[in-house]
Write a structure and sequence with these properties.
This is SGNH/GDSL hydrolase family protein. With 216 residues, the protein is an alpha/beta fold. It contains five helices and seven strands; from the N terminus they run βαβββαβαβαβα. It has a single domain, classed as SGNH hydrolase (Rossmann fold). α1 packs parallel to α5.
Length: 216
C-alpha cells in the first residue's frame, strides 16, 4: 500500500477557501490522509494569501478547521495563525499548503509577480527556518469566467510561477490532473463535490511519491 509511507506522520494542512466547506479538500484530502494512518489537522481561511500564514490575519469570508476524524467546524470569523505556532502545537512533521488562486490576480491585466513572490517567500522562509518538510499544492484549472474572472492562461502562468518559487517545499502541479475545464465548478474557481473528490485523490497519489514523505 503506497499510502503506508504516511502512517504515523503528523500532517498540518493550511490554505484558502478550497479547504473551507464540507465536501471540499478539508473532507476529500483530509479523509484520505487519515485513512493512510496520518494524524491530520486542517485549517482554512477563505481569501487568505500565503503571507497571511506567518501572522494572524482576519479572513474575508470565514473558514473552517478539522482535527483528525472529528467533523469540520465552520468559523465565520476565522483568522490565520502563524505557521510556526501551528507546527509546534501539532508537532507536525509535514505541512501541506493549498494556496494559489488568491495570488493569481485574476481579472487584472498583469500577473502581480513581485507581490506574489513576497507572499510565497514569506511563508517558505518561515518553513525553512522551522526545518519542516512541506508540500505546496498548486491551483486546479477551474473554468474560465465566473465571479473571479479566472482564465486558463493566467492559472497556467500562476502554476509555473509557484513551481519555481516554493522551494524548499516540493510542488504538486494540479494542472496535470485534468484537462482545462474538465472539472466543473460552481463559480469558475471552486469545484463541484465531484471535482474535489478527484482533486483530493490525485493530490494523494502525487503526495505519496514525493521525497518529502519518504522514510528517512
Amino acid at each position: 500500500m503506497l499510502a503506508s509511507v504516511l502512517a504515523g506522520l503528523s500532517i498540518l494542512v493550511i490554505g484558502d477557501s478550497h479547504l473551507s466547506e464540507p465536501g471540499y479538500l478539508i473532507d476529500t484530502l483530509h479523509d484520505r490522509l487519515i485513512a493512510a494512518g496520518a494524524q491530520v489537522h486542517t485549517y482554512s481561511v477563505c481569501g487568505s494569501t500565503p503571507g497571511d500564514w506567518v501572522k494572524s490575519v482576519q479572513g474575508t469570508c470565514g473558514g473552517a478547521e478539522r482535527n483528525g476524524k472529528a467533523p469540520l467546524v465552520i468559523d465565520h470569523n476565522a483568522k490565520t495563525q502563524p505557521v510556526d505556532q501551528l507546527i509546534a502545537a501539532n508537532k507536525a512533521n509535514l505541512v501541506i499548503i493549498v494556496e494559489g488562486d488568491t495570488i493569481g490576480g485574476y481579472g487584472k491585466d498583469d500577473f502581480p509577480k513581485a507581490w506574489a513572490w513576497q507572499q510565497v517567500t514569506a511563508l517558505t522562509q518561515d518553513l525553512a527556518a522551522n526545518k519542516t518538510a512541506c508540500v505546496w499544492v498548486g491551483p486546479a484549472w477551474g473554468t474560465e469566467g465566473g465571479k473571479y474572472q479566472k482564465t486558463f492562461a493566467r492559472v497556467k502562468m500562476l502554476s509555473s510561477f509557484l513551481a519555481t518559487n516554493v522551494a524548499p517545499c516540493q510542488y504538486i502541479d494540479s494542472l496535470t490532473f485534468s484537462k482545462p475545464g474538465e472539472w466543473a465548478t460552481v463559480d469558475g474557481q471552486h469545484l463541484t463535490t465531484t471535482g474535489y473528490k478527484a482533486w483530493g485523490a490525485d493530490i494523494m497519489q502525487a503526495l505519496v511519491k514525493l521525497p518529502a514523505v519518504q522514510p528517512k
